[in-house]
Amino acid sequence: MPAACDSVLEDIEDMVSAEDLKPHDRQFVRKNVFPKVRKRTSQNSQADEDPPSDSIIPGVQKIWIRTWGCSHNNSDGEYMAGQLAAYGYKITDNSAEADLWLLNSCTVKNPAEDHFRNSIKKAQEGKKKVVVAGCVPQAQPRQDYLKGLSIIGVQQIDRVVEVVEETIKGHSVRLLGQKKDNGKRLGGARLDLPKIRKNPLIEIISINTGCLNACTYCKTKHARGDLASYPIEELVSRAKQSFQEGVCEIWLTSEDTGAYGKDIGTDLPTLLWKLVEVIPEGAMMRLGMTNPPYILEHLEEMAKILNHPRVYAFLHIPVQSASDSVLMDMKREYCVADFKQVVDFLKEKVPGITIATDIICGFPGETDEDFQETVKLVEQYRFPSLFINQFYPRPGTPAAKMHQVPAAVKKQRTKDLSQLFHSYSPYDHKVGERQRVLVTEESFDSNYYVAHNPFYEQVLVPKDPLLMGKMVEVNIYEAGKHFMKGQLVSDARVYTASITKPLAKGEVSGLREEFRHAPQNGTNWKANPSAETSVKTPLSSWLTLQLPWQQEGDGLKILSVSLALLAVLVMFYYGVMKTER
């Protein structure tokens, strides 16, 4: 998938409660907004201060967004960017020119949080407004370095415009509640929100949030909480919409995709078969990370799905350690034999499948014998994709209180395992093969386009603009540790994977047509699909911001409030006139 300043936060439920606002309460209650207290200043220093909040026009500023962490976090970042852009804010790649920095954090490892903390400091030194999001502030909002900052909780990303607006005015806003329906926790914000895809060809779909485990090293659980799945029909609808916007590859993501549906009476294979039905020819679907216990229940069905021509034969199954005693201390709820059973079965039933895995080096209590078991596992399976992590104790987790392995030992074990991983070449035997690949990205060095074959192995192809978004055939002529290189087959058919022209880079996805050109310049469009016109409402009023994708039958309520205000003004006017007489 911590501890509040002076107490351990065992679960996200400890931090939020029924006090969390319901959608229909938002426009009247502002308890989460903390106005900035303005100090008295002399006339000489007045010019150096920020202008009063009521003189600032929201929706015209430039915003820089930085996201750390997993694909789930990246999807959240895309949704926040889309809503801000749809409202009129300019999303910029230039942090220096931005008026506000939106920092979307990851709490998995110390280095990621250190980068996040340093970015906050840099923004403050540059006199930038700051809004923080992601798992770090959600799990531990009362850390000293977060004091006075606005926070968007992981389930509150649909309210990012409200938070940014108030922050630009100089206020501090903290929204940390959960989405619930009749008391039942939901997967998160709606999936049909406006979004700016980092790559217009790839849609990241979060199928659930949270998990069923309680791993002793994991801090993400404190932020994302227990398992909450999106309904199948909503996920299928989102996939359809993505393909209609030119997407040719979808990634399913969550803290544990294998656990999908256990909270709503369904399961992962049922969802996947429904999604496969709507994937166009030439487009592909990639499955996200799944822990061994849940995939064990569906091995036969998962093998059939992974053999489907529009599903990558790829699965990320973290083992973390090959020592059962270490796995027990981690509370991973499986033994190494379970992991091997999953891998062996899939390798037999899905020829050529790519199995990626994670390993933690130096978990508390790990002995040399424990580590050697892990080394033997890597030697046996020679994983082509292996994520090696030196253990970092995360504050507030049970593992942080355990007896720690010396830092030098952890570092050496990480180095030894990395050397083993780099000692073998997983793709050399594929030189000379003819492969079908889908081209979706540009390489980091900008010298090639990046494609993936049916096993989600990376293939670099010539940088020909005509190939982007296409399914093509290539001859493999070179192999490296993490990639192959392919040359286009001259007589091969080039197949356009997208069913329509993809959105331009930076273009907002997910806007209903009536909102595609609005709102702009700090105003709020109250569009009614059945009406002939739209009413424009200034945001400088006392009403809390209501965006088109947040409105559900609020029109009558606003009309009633407006009439009441008008009545008060009329009564005041006649009172003044009567007094003057």
TrEMBL record:
It comes from Tricholaema leucomelas (pied barbet). NCBIfam families: MiaB-like-B, MiaB/RimO family radical SAM methylthiotransferase. SMART domains: Elp3. Residues 428-490 form the TRAM domain. Gene3D superfamilies: Methylthiotransferase, N-terminal domain (3.40.50.12160), tm_1862 like domain (3.80.30.20). Keywords: 4Fe-4S, Endoplasmic reticulum, Iron, Iron-sulfur, Membrane, Metal-binding, S-adenosyl-L-methionine, Transferase, Transmembrane, Transmembrane helix, tRNA processing. This is tRNA-t(6)A37 methylthiotransferase. It is a single-pass membrane protein. Residues 197-428 form the Radical SAM core domain. Binds 1 or 2 [4Fe-4S] cluster. One cluster is coordinated with 3 cysteines and an exchangeable S-adenosyl-L-methionine. Belongs to the methylthiotransferase family. CDKAL1 subfamily. Its main location: endoplasmic reticulum. It is found in: Endoplasmic reticulum membrane; Membrane. The gene is Cdkal1. It catalyses: N(6)-L-threonylcarbamoyladenosine(37) in tRNA + (sulfur carrier)-SH + AH2 + 2 S-adenosyl-L-methionine = 2-methylsulfanyl-N(6)-L-threonylcarbamoyladenosine(37) in tRNA + (sulfur carrier)-H + 5'-deoxyadenosine + L-methionine + A + S-adenosyl-L-homocysteine + 2 H(+). Residues 32-56 are annotated as: Disordered. The chain crosses the membrane at residues 558-576.
